Amino acid sequence: MGAPALSTRTPLAPSFVEELRGIFGNRLHLGEAMRAQHGGSETHFATALPDAVVFAHSTEEVVALVKACTSANVPIVPFGAGTSVEGNTTPVRGGVSVDLSEMDKILTINPDDFDCTVQAGVRREELNSALRDKGLFFPIDPGANATIGGMASTRASGTNAVRYGTMREAILSLRVVTPDGRDIRTARRARKSAAGYDLTRLMIGSEGTLGIITEVTLRLHGIPEQISSAVCSFATMAGAVDTVVQAIQLGIPLARVEILDDVQMKAVNQYSKLDYPELTTLFFEFHGSEHAVKEQIATVGDLARDNGGGEFRWSNLAEERARLWKARHQAFYAATAMRKGAIGWPTDVCVPIGRLAACINETKRDLEKASFPAPILGHVGDGNFHVIFVIDPNSSAEHKEAEALNERLVQRALDMDGTCTGEHGIGLGKQDWLVRELGEDGVALMRTIKSALDPKNLFNPGKIFAD
Ligand SMILES: Cc1cc2nc3c(=O)[nH]c(=O)nc-3n(C[C@H](O)[C@H](O)[C@H](O)COP(=O)(O)OP(=O)(O)OC[C@H]3O[C@@H](n4cnc5c(N)ncnc54)[C@H](O)[C@@H]3O)c2cc1C
Q: 250, exposed or middle or buried, with CB in 10 Å at 0-12, 13-18, 19+?
């Protein structure tokens, strides 16, 4: 459910398959198991198998693939780690799924310039392991151990975005293979540039519909002198949200601030064997000098108390921090584990920070009537939050109910001048909402860009807008 019906399609021509075998050798896969791994999704979208899967090892191979697919009119769907949640990688028109996860080399690290260049298949956790002994880190953290290419393509963000921004801010330059088979660099390594159209930003968030990213140059940050975490629970959702909004309005440079409602905290306690109060809870992280972090903690602790918060438990210990963020990162799996056999349908919206309290409070009231668990969690410092509908995959009534709740949630966010997705992208799930958000004319301009770059509509067809 959720995905459009599959078009009937013709099998790949034997000559085309032989051409792929010539490029990829035994890294071409036609078997059902590998195709199924590249046709499913972690969430509620129907599976649609690609006709073939190839594992690319170089930009040159990707160029050869694009040329072969273009002349044979075969769709190409880029695949990173497959952790996206809006059906973004599902090959609804079949074709070739090009898996970039084996393009996993860190090409250069320039500590003096605070940047690095990596192949698209490098995963964020491996990158951070390689950066650690240089005193550097890459802050974008979508929870899942996603690839840098996939994160660029969904304009991902996550827990650190309140302080360090999203992939939009993190990327200096991309190497991209375009639908006409060109191998381009979108920019150099300079921190800013006014050189013509911003091709880097055009590609970021394009979900594989405009180009295949093979290399990414990223901004890095120094590991802060002091990192402290804190947890505080609140009797009311409003108290928690007001604490965050007031901290931001006071200019406190929060590095992370995450909200988990009472339903999500219950799930986290059960799943991660923890004993936090089962109330709406804020997870914080503070970065800076020892003195600055102490001051931030004192101010936020006071705000929390004034807004009805309970004990403000903070810690400098790395183990305590790791425990906290592990529990947070497992929140999706904790939510789905609340019901045997259930699946999680995650949705995300983002609103201007001043409207966040109203948006979350109205949403919470709406969700209280749901016939299944629907926890709220999110990166509240950005005005971005998620709901996970924990539904029975075989119940069309629950699908319909989730759709209606999602509809009201997204409409509420748009009415507040927010967006239908803060970070998950459009994929298959938010296509109607894109039109409601930007209007027919805004989406028509996107279609013009798409058809100028990909006139045969072969790059991840059926995503962002229906074809
Ligand atoms: C438990 C969980 C928590 C999550 N939390 C967050 C979160 O906090 N914030 C957030 O932003 N996301 C979150 N996500 C979603 C997901 O991790 C992100 O969307 C991530 O950016 C996807 O990266 P990936 O490597 O898995 O890409 P994939 O899922 O493989 O691909 C994503 C999209 O990018 C395209 N693509 C992939 N690689 C390339 C490439 N090299 N060139 C061109 N196009 C490409 C694909 O075709 C697809 O359209 C979460 C997911 C899970 C499962």
A: exposed
Give the chain's length. Answer: 467
284-317 pLDDT per residue, tens: 999 999 999 999 999 999 999 999 999 999 999 9
Split at pLDDT 50, 70, 90, the class of 9 is low
Predicted local confidence at residue 3, as pLDDT = 41
pLDDT band at 42 (very low <50, low <70, confident <90, very high): confident
Tokens describing residue 382: 């950005």
What is the CA(249)–ligand 1 centre distance, in A?
Answer: 31
Cα of 3 from ligand 1 centre, angstroms: 18
Going by their DSSP bridges, the two strands 212-219 and 115-119 should be labelled as antiparallel
> Cβ(158)–Cβ(141) under 8 Å?
yes
Tell me the CA–centroid distance for residue 437 and ligand 1, in Å.
Answer: 22
Residue 354 CB neighbour total at 10 angstroms = 12
- Average of per-residue pLDDT values in the chain: 95
Q: Do residues 383 and 117 make contact, with C-beta atoms less than 8 angstroms apart?
A: no
End-to-end CA separation in angstroms for the chain: 18
For residues 250 and 161, the answer to whether their CB atoms sit within 8 Å is no
Q: Which residues line ligand 1 (CB under 6 A)?
A: 42, 77-85, 88-89, 100, 120, 142-144, 146-147, 149-151, 153-154, 156-158, 207-208, 212-213, 332, 423-424, 460, 463
DSSP for 381-411, written as a single string: GGTEEEEEEEE-TT-HHHHHHHHHHHHHHHH
Question: Which residue has its alpha carbon closest to ligand 1 atom 36?
Answer: 150
- Encoded amino acid at 85, one letter: V
What does residue 326 show for φ and ψ, rounded to 5 degrees? Answer: -65, -45
Q: Which atom of ligand 1 is nearest to the CA of 333?
A: 1
Residue 2 has pLDDT above 80, yes or no: no
**Rounded-to-integer distance, Cα 413 and Cα 2, Å:** 21
d(CA 426, CA 209): 12
Distance CA 151, CA 48 (A): 22
Q: What is the pTM of this model?
A: 0.96
Token pair 């880029």 in the structure block, residue: 78
Query: What is the rounded average pLDDT of the residues 100-126?
Result: 98
Token reading at 278: 């089962």
Tens-digit pLDDT profile for residues 186-234: 999 999 999 999 999 999 999 999 999 999 999 999 999 999 999 999 9
Report yes or no: 3 and 48 within 8 Å, Cβ to Cβ: yes
pLDDT in tens, 191-204: 999 999 999 999 99
The DSSP string of 285-344 is: EEEE-HHHHHHHHHHHHHHHHHTTB---EEE--HHHHHHHHHHHHTHHHHHHTTSTT-EE
